[in-house]
Each structure stands twice: as structure tokens, then as C-alpha cells.
Specification:
The protein is mainly alpha-helical. The protein has 6 helices and 4 strands. The strands form 2 sheets. A two-stranded antiparallel sheet has the order 1-2.
Length: 174
């Protein structure tokens, strides 16, 4: 079903069935700003500028979900807002799951993986998505990412590649 929503003063028309796990205005605003910056619309465009202002205000809140922080970090990376990008990545690193030489993020309150013989756990698509957004935020920076960021990014990429199914895809097309 098509919906109309006003996000930070922006009229947005979207298909509700494509919304994924997003159910708040800040996360949806981050998605939209990412899409607009990838077109690419300039950061000075009024819609982008207003959306970024909304995200900057929201980034200072402590209750942001890890998925929302990952999206905002990538949006700020695309916009060249280096301080906000670094602050969110620092916050996200504190919430990272570091295991078996890889790094990823998972939803709060998630039950631990079951370690069964002959069974390879694959994370739900939302966790693959948010981890991929963090990876993009690490790699999208001017000037180029530092060696330290590239090393950390390789640990994230290792986890993401481990989530691939035997056909090379993932658990979802999202």
C-alpha cells in the first residue's frame, strides 16, 4: 500500500511493504537521505539539507537503535559530515559483536547463536543489512579511509561474506 509521510518537513511517498524493519521517522529519513545523496543530489539541496539537520538532531539522542545508528553513520559519510560519522562509528564499535576474527552488529535482546555440530548459523537479514551499512560508513570517507579503518572494515567484510548462502546470495533480497 502506498503511504505519504512528512519527515522533517519533507513529503515522502513510499510503498509500505518495502519498509523492511523500519518503523520510525528517523530511520526512514536516513534511508531517504542516503538514496538522495547516492543519486547524487548535492548536500546543499534543500531537501537533503533539511533531512541532514533532522538526522544531526537525532544523532545526539542516546536511545537510537543500532540499526538507526548504522544508517545515520552512512548518511553522514555520504554527506561528508566527518565528525558525526566518526562519533556514530565510535558508538557502534562499543556495541559490536567481535567473534572468531570478525565483527558484526545484532539487534538488542537477541538470543545467542546456537552452536550445533554440522550447522552453520546465518544471521537474519536485518543484521546483515546493518552490518553492511556500518561497513559502507567506514569505507565512505574523504580523504580515503585510514589503514586502521581498512583493517577494521576487513573484519566486518569477513563476517558479511560468512553469511552468504551456497549460491552466493543472502537470506533476503532487501
Amino acid at each position: 500500500t502506498e503511504k505519504t509521510v512528512v519527515l522533517c518537513g519533507i513529503n515522502i511517498y513510499f510503498c509500505g511493504s518495502l519498509q523492511g524493519g523500519v518503523n520510525d521517522e528517523i530511520t526512514l529519513t536516513a534511508y531517504i537521505i542516503i538514496a538522495l545523496l547516492e543519486i547524487p543530489l548535492p548536500v546543499t539541496h534543500s531537501v537533503v539539507r533539511n533531512g541532514l539537520f533532522c538526522l544531526e538532531t537525532a544523532a545526539d539522542e542516546k536511545e537510537n537503535h543500532v540499526y538507526t545508528k548504522a544508517l545515520m553513520a552512512y548518511a553522514f559519510a555520504l554527506a561528508g559530515k566527518e565528525e558525526k560519522r566518526k562519533a556514530l562509528l565510535g558508538s557502534l564499535e562499543k556495541e559490536a559483536v567481535k567473534k572468531d576474527g570478525s565483527v558484526h552488529w545484532q539487534r538488542p535482546g537477541k538470543e545467542p547463536e546456537v552452536d550445533l555440530p554440522y550447522y552453520r548459523y546465518r544471521a537474519p537479514s536485518a543484521e546483515v543489512e546493518m552490518t553492511a551499512y556500518v561497513l559502507l560508513a567506514h569505507l565512505t570517507t574523504q580523504p580515503a579511509p585510514s589503514q586502521e579503518e581498512l583493517s577494521f572494515a576487513s573484519l566486518i567484510a569477513k563476517w558479511i561474506s560468512g553469511q552468504q548462502n551456497p549460491n552466493g546470495g543472502f537470506s533476503s533480497t532487501q
